[in-house]
Write a structure and sequence with these properties.
The chain is of the alpha/beta class and 355 residues long. It is built from 10 helices and 18 strands. It has a single domain, classed as FAD/NAD(P)-binding domain (3-Layer(bba) Sandwich). It is 30% helix and 24% strand. The strands form 4 sheets. Strands 6-5-12-13-14-11-15 form a 7-stranded mixed beta sheet, with helices on both faces. It has a 6-stranded mixed beta sheet with strand order 8-2-1-9-18-17, with helices on one face. It is globular and about 55 Å long. The C terminus is likely disordered. It binds flavin-adenine dinucleotide.
Length: 355
């Protein structure tokens, strides 16, 4: 088949690498080669990502920047550590470039609906939150959060490991992710739009020696069953475009690569692929439903306790793909009721491609 992949994030690059050799694949990436980057916290789970990269002949150890032991969580006026033996930050743009090395990549090619469909047997929408080829979500309930992030440099790092602050009503969270060599990302995503203020508040409290750069981009936290359609005509979506981001953590790198692998194995069967994605990521539906109830204050002991326990069990079973391994007490401590927020959830329209 002649296949076009729109978007060279983790999903698009990994899919193209898995398909190349068996199909003729062209990758269209909106950013130029010189300025190519990935607006993201660059954190992922070590074990799962290492396994995934092996399949395309790369060693994940070559990209790791910081290897975690713990993630400090600040909630309800106390800070406590959660086991995070698998959580790492890594050089994501360099890894993506290497995954796509040797492929036919057309950098600086920003594509829209209608540009590619007639020229290819199959067009893959891997444009992340934007769904530029598939178009807006028609069935389900989409949810896209704005984010804002600083790359900063410290003489003395304020934390020696990962640190997060979940916001009231589960509207998002602030993160501090160490990048090795005294660098860190300090960012936040918040549907209530308090993300910038919270980042600036953190930097006031923990002033860096240098503020290097700001960036931002929307993130989809809706789960795959709420981000439909997954395909239409000769177009099929993969990665964040179809909701493969874990709603509670905002972790989308490894799940998007997992979805890409599924698509590579079912490239001739789009319905089967869509069914497979919904089934494989059904735990994401549970987590998404959970945070919606928290945001809307419709959660109570009856509708929240069992899902919270299921979320805990899912973390236990999957810490090689989430990186964190909280105890039941720590899970319930983070998931416990929050005070009422000032406004309900408002889906935010995706912004421009560049930060
Ligand atoms: C601020 C922030 C922090 C995050 N932190 C983490 C984290 O620490 N860990 C984690 O696991 N996840 C994180 N995520 C989520 C994660 O970045 C994504 O879920 C993941 O990268 C999704 O991969 P993808 O390939 O589906 O899409 P993307 O990574 O979004 O890649 C899409 C690609 O398509 C290109 N593109 C877009 N539109 C077009 C177009 N019209 N034509 C051509 N190219 C186009 C883009 O330039 C981009 O290269 C974060 C997200 C944000 C916004």
């Amino acid at each position: 088949m002649k296949i076009a992949v729109a978007g060279m994030g983790p999903a698009g690059s990994y899919l193209a690498a898995l398909l190349s050799g068996k199909h003729q694949v062209d990758v269209y990436e909106g950013q130029t080669e010189e300025r190519f980057t990935s607006v993201c916290g660059w954190a992922t789970a070590y074990g799962g990502t290492k396994e995934a990269l092996k399949e395309v002949g790369l060693d994940f150890d070559d990209y790791v920047l910081h290897r975690g032991r713990e993630m400090y969580v600040s909630a309800f006026d106390r800070t406590f550590p959660i086991d995070a033996p698998e959580l790492v930050t890594f050089d994501k743009p360099r890894m993506i470039r290497d995954v796509a090395k040797g492929l036919n990549v057309r950098y600086g090619s920003f594509v829209r609906q209608g540009d590619l469909e007639s020229k290819y047997d199959l067009v893959v929408d891997a444009t992340g939150p934007y769904r530029r080829i598939l178009g807006p979500v028609q069935e389900g309930r989409d949810m896209i959060l704005p984010t804002f992030q600083w790359l900063v440099r410290y003489k003395d790092m304020p934390f020696d490991d990962f640190y997060i602050e979940p916001f009231d009503s589960f509207s998002g969270y602030l993160w501090y992710f160490p990048l090795g060599d005294h660098d860190a990302f300090v960012g936040a995503g918040d549907i209530q739009k308090g993300h910038r203020a919270s980042v600036e508040g953190f930097l006031k409290k923990h002033p860096p020696s240098e503020k290097v750069a700001t960036m931002g981009k929307p993130i989809r936290v809706a789960a795959p069953s709420s981000v439909l359609p997954h395909y239409g005509g000769n177009v099929v979506g993969v990665g964040e475009a179809i909701g493969t981001v874990y709603p509670i953590l905002g972790e989308g790198i490894l799940p998007s690569m997992t979805a890409a692998k599924m698509l590579s194995q079912m490239i001739d069967d789009r319905e089967g692929y869509s069914r497979g994605v919904r089934s494989r990521f059904s735990a994401y539906d549970l987590a998404y439903g959970y945070i919606i109830r928290k945001m809307e204050h419709t959660d109570n002991l009856l509708n929240s306790f069992i899902p919270a326990v299921k979320i805990f069990l899912w973390f236990k079973k999957n810490f090689d793909i989430t990186g964190v391994n909280p105890s039941i007490i720590e899970t319930l401590r983070v998931l416990r009721p929050r005070k009422k927020a000032t406004q309900g959830p408002t889906p935010v329209t995706p912004g421009p491609l560049s930060p």
